[in-house]
Amino acid sequence: MDLSSVFFIGNIMNLERIPNEEKLSLCRRYYLGGFAFLPFLWLVNVLWFFREAFLKPTYTEQLQIKSYVKKSALGLIVWVAVLTTWITIFQHFRAQWGEVGDYLSFTIPLGTA
Amino acid sequence: MLFIPVTLCMVVVVATIKSVSFYTQKDGQQLIYTPFREDTETVGQRALNSMLNAAIMISVIVVMTLVLVVLYKYRCYKVIQGWLFFSNLLLLFFFSFIYLGEVFKTYNVAMDYFTLAVIIWNFGVVGMICIHWKGPLRLQQAYLIMISALMALVFIKYLPEWTAWLILAAISVYDLLAVLCPKGPLRILVETAQERNEPIFPALIYSSTMVWLFNMADSAEPRNNSSHPVPQQENQGECLRELRNHTPEDDGGFTPAWVNQQQHQLGPMQSTEDSRREIQELPSARPPPVEDEEERGVKLGLGDFIFYSMLVGKASATASGDWNTTIACFVAILIGLCLTLLLLAIFKKALPALPISITFGLVFYFATDNLVRPFMDQLAVHQFYI
Questions:
Q1: Where is it located (chain B) (predicted)?
Q2: Helices B113-132 and B77-89, interaxial angle, to 10°?
Q3: In CA terms, which of A46, B41, B155, B368 is 20 to 30 Å from B71?
Q4: Tens digits of residue pLDDT in B250-290
């Protein structure tokens, strides 16, 4: 990895104690990772770095971290919208779609048409 | 501090057992490690079969523990890490897939493959990232609790009655021996790790706080300021810092047999099953490190979570006293955990977390089921309030 590994080992809980470059790098990696169909990763990114990006006094990397957090939030909102739309459509029309509906279904509720 | 995660894990297991009937249905499938069936004609035969099953399981665990110690001694870290990675992968994807499917069936919810794929993919990948790489501590703790619960559920489903209780008892004894005896494999592991001044295995231990490793000194030694960042790099990854050697708690261990029975031919599971097992044995509770750069925290092995939850889950699944017994076992385990932590504070060395809690749990289970419940029933029947 990089220089920061020398200073700590293990999972990060406390963002306080890692250097800023490391925070930026982590934020960026989480942001990039989210493009692999991982809105959850974007959510974690937003929640974890929210305080760092918006509620802390400014430091050099903060601007970039802010931009990553904003972009992650944007991506997350898009995903949520798409998923909600799809789920609504599916749940509403599943019965009417007949065979296609069954083919798409992982579990089919019992006792309904 | 450790009570909350242990409680959460048990709550998840009990809630699942009570609501999703899949985990209490005996489909007749058993793990490959417990080949003898318990549905025999005579009680004697059943007792014999369950003892044989337990013996096989325990010997598998012992072998796995020894293999792990040997691997560790000969520095085959890659093998161990790969093993853990793979078993985590299995747990996070395959088992949670099954779990989710059963939950949806129970609540009669329609689910399409696309949404399901998105959910499982996200859950699994973020879990792997948090456990094996870097992630927020709370999320990592949550994932560890979830995989322990999933594992406990697998055991509850696939181990027959008497075998399960015998295994619990035998594992506690083994834990005790392996951690405290001078030649015990786990103790050797711990000591080797201490000599080399390095953390044992990442991602196998639940830690209540995060620790900064500026030195890898053992708390028994005075703080030594040499840090060994380089050799540890490969072992780091994620996990927890081990000041005290962490027990490699494996969170894998799905039985190939089970998998085979599910018509999935996943060969390499064997290792996971075992590693999981042995993880159990590894010393679980560890005293907090005393270096001042760190935050104190107590670490508990994942195997302990699994067995505690398995005990409480079995109690809720099969006890005639229902909630009485479940709550009694729950309290017993927490009391045992308290005592273990107390001993940890007194002795300041790695201690087995299983024996005390499991003993109390077993005693309370059998006592409540056979003594307290009939007593309460009779009181209710005669409308006699005390």
A1: Cell membrane; Cell projection, Axon; Cytoplasmic granule; Endoplasmic reticulum membrane
A2: 150
A3: B155
A4: 333 333 333 333 333 333 333 344 445 445 444 455 544 43
Q: Quick count: other Cβ atoms within 10 Å of Cβ B91?
A: 26
- The CA-based angle B213-B216-B219, given to 5 degrees, is 105
Question: Which chain A residues contact residue B130 at CB under 8 A?
Answer: 11
Whole-number Å distance between alpha carbons of B98 and A103: 19
pLDDT of residue B171: 93
**Could you report the per-residue pLDDT of B284-340, keeping only the tens digit for each?**
555 444 343 444 577 788 888 999 999 999 999 887 767 888 999 999 999 999 999
For residue B59, the model assigns a pLDDT of 93
Distance from CA of A15 to the nearest CA of B (A): 9
Q: 3-class DSSP state for residue A62?
A: helix
Residue A94, pLDDT score: 78
B175 is catalytic: yes
% of chain B residues with pLDDT over 70: 75
Under 8 Å between Cβ of B356 and B340: yes
Instruction: List the single residue in A5, A14, A44 with the smallest CB-CB distance to B233.
Output: A5
Q: Which of B175, B218, B250, B369 is catalytic?
A: B175
Is B304 annotated in the active site? yes
3-state secondary structure of B107: coil
Q: Do A13 and B238 touch (CB under 8 A)?
A: no
Q: Three-class SS of residue B217?
A: coil
A71/chain B closest Cα distance in angstroms:
18
CB-CB under 8 Å, B199 with A9: yes
Which residues does residue B217 pair with via DSSP β-bridges, in sequence order?
Answer: none
Q: For residue B138, what is the nearest residue in chain A, using CA coordinates?
A: A13
Spatial CB neighbours of A74, under 8 Å, sequence gap ≥ 6: none
Q: Is A33 on the interface with B (CB under 8 A)?
A: yes
Residue A50, helix vs strand vs coil:
helix
B134-173 per-position pLDDT tens digit: 889 889 999 999 999 999 999 999 888 889 999 999 999 9
Does B196 have pLDDT greater than 50?
Answer: yes
- Contact between A52 and A23 (Cβ < 8 Å): yes
